[in-house]
Specification:
Rossmann fold; about 35% helix; about 20% strand; 2 domains; alpha/beta
């Protein structure tokens, strides 16, 4: 039984972990790297055709965004996820594919003039459509047995509609191990979805640590604070621009804005207009407006039973066309604009920032995690100006970081989740957090008597012997994200070859001493040749 770490290790995006047991090799998530993590993700660090199946914890692209690449590279197994996650994946993967194609086309327009080689998208819309055929819906609490000796159940993680923690049971001979993958753990008391559910039994836990070194703002009623920002900004004649993840965060904001309007909390502008400027957000909002049985919290269920749509209200407009989007900054009417992407790395939000960042009367309101290296993170960190579409834009607008609305549990929430296990797990692998956050959270666990480990990318662990097989690569040893994509891609091939070598070594355990000695001599000779 071996565990491999293929993404979101000492960083936040690109979640991908692998289990090898019972004669099967399978993935838990296959996410896309984003922001400062986006280089080196164009090649998989394993052979796609050798993966038997995939379990997806939730639909966010940093957990699912390389599924079409997996299909493109030869994977033909089932992809297990909750029903709601499957619904969301259908729109999110197609949207991601369109972005991949548009990015490649834009790069090629510039590249042709410079005489560069033709760039290829990471995957195409056709690849995304092919991926949908392999989706296999599950329900919370259902025991799934995808292979002999392997079973798993999903539990509501309270992070996104359909998000799950996954409990996997592996049996080889007379040995059974229980491994829990937390997925992304949600904060309690958030709109629409239920609070995270707690688990009690595991030998090993792989858990996220996005906010492992800090707490969220303690706001008695964040509706009042949000309403005040809107009221003050509109009074000054500015726009409230909210970079928001199209799926999950946007719908939660609409729920809160409906309540704010119903309670008349925006005193001077009670009928303020709200524009959701994202085709993906519009499609996701339609899913959130459908049947939420088994996913919604009690409060949302009661709203639905009373005959109201919990995320619809007067003065709400969903913009899909480019023409509608352009008019939002041309009509001069103060408004709330919710647009993706949530980290400001792509999409229409960059146009709204271009038109509003320089206006001191406008406000930019962040309501989600901003990964290192993203435009959103730079704005929160207080950069005086940014470059958008070739133009330098001075930052004069008010910047708010509204952490009270985070979809991730803070340090207290993470500790509450892990301390629900009794007895404590044999080991806790701390992932999905920047190195500082993951290290800080691991230190807190160690002080409480746990045995934490913060694995590197490409690390490997033997669950039967409870030993590290490979230390993997420290962030400083990984290919520089400033290098050209082609260089990074070739290095990724080399790393993948090294990963395979470790697997071959593990498979030869117990072989004849003569053969093992010969194998060791060959590896030593190769290392001597290239250790320069």
């Amino acid at each position: 039984m071996k565990l491999y770490f293929y993404g979101a290790d000492k960083e936040v995006t690109g979640s991908c972990h692998c289990l090898e047991a019972c004669g099967k090799t399978f993935l838990i998530d296959c996410g896309l790297q984003q922001g400062g993590d986006d280089e080196g993700g164009r090649e998989l660090p394993f052979k796609a055709s050798q993966i038997d199946f995939v379990i997806v914890t939730h639909a966010h692209i940093d957990h699912s965004g390389r599924l079409p690449l997996l299909i493109r590279e030869g994977f033909r197994g089932r992809i297990f996820a909750t029903g709601a996650t499957c619904d969301l994946l259908e729109i999110m993967l197609l949207d991601s594919a369109r972005i991949q194609e548009m990015d490649a086309e834009l790069e090629n327009r510039k590249g042709r003039r410079a005489g560069r080689e033709e760039a290829q998208p990471l995957y195409t819309v056709q690849d995304a459509e092919n991926t949908l055929h392999y989706l296999t819906p599950c329900v919370y609490g259902q025991t799934i047995c995808p292979a002999e000796g392997v079973s798993f159940t999903m539990t509501d993680a309270g992070h996104l509609l359909g998000s799950a923690s996954v409990t996997i049971r592996l049996t080889e001979g007379d040995v059974t191990k229980t491994i829990v993958f937390s997925g992304d753990i949600g904060s309690p008391n958030r709109p629409i979805i239920r609070d995270p559910q707690y688990l009690t039994t595991a030998d090993y836990v792989i858990m996220e640590s996005t906010y492992g070194n800090r707490e969220h703002d303690r706001v008695k009623d964040y509706r009042e604070e949000l309403a005040k920002i809107i009221d003050d900004t509109l009074t000054q004649g500015g726009n409230v621009v909210i970079p928001s993840f199209a799926v999950g965060r946007t719908q939660e904001l609409l729920y809160l804005l409906r309540e704010i309007k119903e309670q008349n909390l925006v005193v001077h502008h009670p009928n303020f207009p709200v524009y959701v400027d994202s085709p993906l957000s519009a499609r996701a909002t339609n899913i959130y407006s459908g049947d939420l049985t088994g996913y919604a919290d009690e409060e949302t269920v009661e709203v639905i039973k009373s005959g109201y749509n919990p995320i619809r209200f007067p003065d709400l407009r969903l913009c899909e066309s480019v023409e509608e989007s352009k008019m939002l900054n041309a009509d001069g009417i103060p408004k709330v604009i919710i647009s993706s992407s949530g980290m400001c790395e792509a999409g229409r939000i960059r146009h709204h920032l271009k038109h509003n960042l320089w206006r001191k009367e406008s406000s930019i309101l962040f309501v989600g995690y901003q990964a290192e290296g993203t435009l959103g993170r730079r704005l929160i960190d207080g950069v005086p100006s940014v470059k958008l579409f070739g133009e330098e834009i001075v930052v004069m607008a008010k910047i708010y970081n509204f952490r009270a609305l985070s979809a991730h549990a803070d340090k207290t929430g993470l500790l509450r989740w892990i301390t629900s296990f009794s007895p404590i797990p044999r080991r806790v692998f701390v992932v999905h957090g920047e190195a500082e956050a993951a290290g800080s959270f691991a230190a807190a666990l160690q002080a409480m008597g746990y045995q934490p480990m913060v694995p590197n990318y490409l690390a490997a662990y033997d669950l039967l012997t409870d030993q590290v097989i490979s230390e993997g690569l420290e962030p400083s040893d990984r290919p520089s994200r400033q290098k050209k994509r082609t260089s990074s891609s070739v290095y990724a091939r080399l790393v993948a070859a090294g990963r395979r070598l470790l697997q071959v070594i593990a498979h030869n355990e117990g072989g004849a001493n003569k053969d093992l000695a010969k194998f060791a001599d060959q590896i030593t000779s190769l290392c001597d040749k290239w250790d320069r």
